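The following record pairs a protein chain with its ligand, phosphoric acid mono(formamide)ester.
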Amino acid sequence: MKHYVTVNDIDSAKEWIDLARELKQDPFKFKELGERKTLGLLFFNNSLRTRLSTQKAALHLGMHCMIMNFSSEGWALEFEDGTIMDKGKAEHIREAAQVVSQYCDVLGVRAFASLGSKENDEAEIVLNGFKKHATIPILNMESATGHPLQALADLITIRENSTKKNPKVVLSWAPHPKALPHAVANSFVEIMQQNSAIDFSITHPEGYELNPLITKDVPLYYDQDEALRDADFVYVKNWSSYNSYGKVLSTDANWMITEKKLGHAKFMHCLPVRRNVVVEDAVLDSSRSLVMEQANNRTYAAQVALLKILKGL
Ligand code: CP
C-alpha cells in the first residue's frame, strides 16, 4: 500500500481488524519492520489522540518520529502553481513536500477543513499537495473531508464490542457551539457502508445532510428517537451544515445524548467532546461509553496502516 488517505485504501476490513487485534496482544511483534525508518508528522491543527497514538504506533514498529506543529513552526505555504510569491507565503508546497521527503520515509499530515470554501476543502489542498509533491507515502491524520484512522479505530471498537453479527449502528448529530468539519462523520459513514453486515443509519436535524456522494442510500431520520430505537451502538458527532457550507444552523439542546435516549446502546464519540452539550455526564461516565476503547484503538489502527505502508516500501 502506497498511502493511507481514505478508508477506501483498506483492502480487507476483516484482515485489518484481525491484524489490529493481533497487534493489541503483541504490540512489538513487527518491531523490526520500521527499524531505521523515520515517520514525519506535520500538524496544521491541534491534536491529542492522533499525535500520541500515531507516535506510539510508530514506536511499536521500531520507527523514529519527527513532529512539527507546522502552522506555528513552519513557513507559511503556497499551494497554487505559477503564483508570484511576493506576499505572506514564504515556501511553496513543491519544495516543502520534497524537502520533507529527504528526511522521512513516511509522512503523516493533519490539515482540517477551513469551512470557508467547500470547493477548496473538497480539493484537499494540503493533503493532496503533499501527496502530489512528496516522494514518500502519506498517512492522513485527518484532512478536510476524512479521518480514516479514526474510522478504522471505530470499526475495530464496534467489532470488539458487538455480540451480534448484524449490529444496529446509528450516527447521530449532536449540538455544538462551534462550526465543526465533516471529516469524522464522512469517514465513519464510508467505513460503515463497506461493512454490509452492519445495519447503519444516520439521524440529524433538517439542513445537516452530509455530502450525498458519501451518504448515498444510507437511511436517514430527522426524528432522533425513532432512529435510536433498538440501536446497539450510537456514534455521536457534531458537524456543521454541508449545504449551507460551514454554517451552524441549530444548537438545539434536545439533540444532546442522554441516558434515556441511549437506552441499552453503547455510546461512541471520537473525542474531544463537550460535556453536557454533546452528551450528558451520566452517559460519558457510564460503562456504556466506549470512548476510551476507541482512543486506545487509535494506536492499533495507526499501527496497521503504518505496517501496511512499511510493507510496501
Ligand atoms: N479524535 C481525534 O482525532 O482526536 P485529536 O483531534 O485529539 O487527535
